[in-house]
């Protein structure tokens, strides 16, 4: 699409990781048949979809904070004990661990993890219960391997 002398190319997620804007000529890296791309200058192939998705996942995990780590950890521990872990329990645990003073912070962290598909929130019997997803388990594993954060006890889970 051409507008005001700037050509903007929109690529499908499978073939290009970002939007590119070019002014004037030069369409290096245009999409090739079969979803493959190469730069005419270097002749190198662009990363394939799986590589890009892996990099995106790692970037998302890298940006998570200790608060997110604890939510994922306690969610998986609660499922291991067959307990329902809800936002109220989470807030109490975060507060006792000294990680937050407001429920709003806990809710925002839960919303962020749900947006990334790392946890599911299900309303059951007037409670919003937290369940870890396969993506969340993979993120937790990655965070544990890095050893960036230490484990903290959940008062809710330890009391059961």
Report what the structure shows:
- This protein is α+β, with helices and mostly antiparallel strands and 160 residues long.
- It has a domain at 64-158: Arc Repressor Mutant, subunit A (Orthogonal Bundle).
- It has six helices and five strands; from the N terminus they run E-E-E-H-H-H-H-E-E-H-H.
- The strands form two sheets. The chain has a three-stranded antiparallel β-sheet, with no helix packed on it. A two-stranded antiparallel sheet has the order 4-5.
- It starts with a strand and ends with a helix.
- The model is unreliable at 1-33 (pLDDT under 50).
Descriptive tags:
alpha+beta, two-stranded antiparallel ribbon, 14% strand, disordered N terminus, three-stranded antiparallel beta sheet, 6 helices, 160 residues, Arc Repressor Mutant, subunit A
In short:
This protein is 44% helix and 14% strand. It is of the alpha+beta class and 160 residues long.
């Amino acid at each position: 699409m051409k507008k005001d002398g700037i050509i903007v190319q929109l690529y499908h997620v499978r073939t290009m990781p970002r939007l590119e804007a070019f002014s004037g000529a030069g369409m290096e890296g245009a999409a090739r048949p079969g979803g493959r791309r190469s730069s005419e200058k270097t002749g190198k192939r662009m990363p394939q979809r799986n590589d890009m998705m892996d990099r995106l996942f790692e970037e998302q995990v890298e940006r998570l904070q200790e608060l997110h780590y604890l939510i994922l950890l306690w969610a998986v521990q609660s499922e291991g004990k067959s307990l329902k872990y809800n936002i109220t329990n989470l807030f109490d645990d975060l507060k006792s661990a000294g990680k937050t003073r407001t429920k709003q912070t806990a809710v925002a962290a839960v919303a962020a993890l749900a947006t990334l598909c790392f946890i599911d929130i299900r309303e059951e019997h007037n409670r919003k219960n937290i369940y870890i997803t396969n993506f969340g388990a993979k993120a937790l594993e990655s965070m544990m391997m890095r050893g960036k954060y230490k484990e903290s006890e959940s008062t809710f889970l330890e009391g059961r």
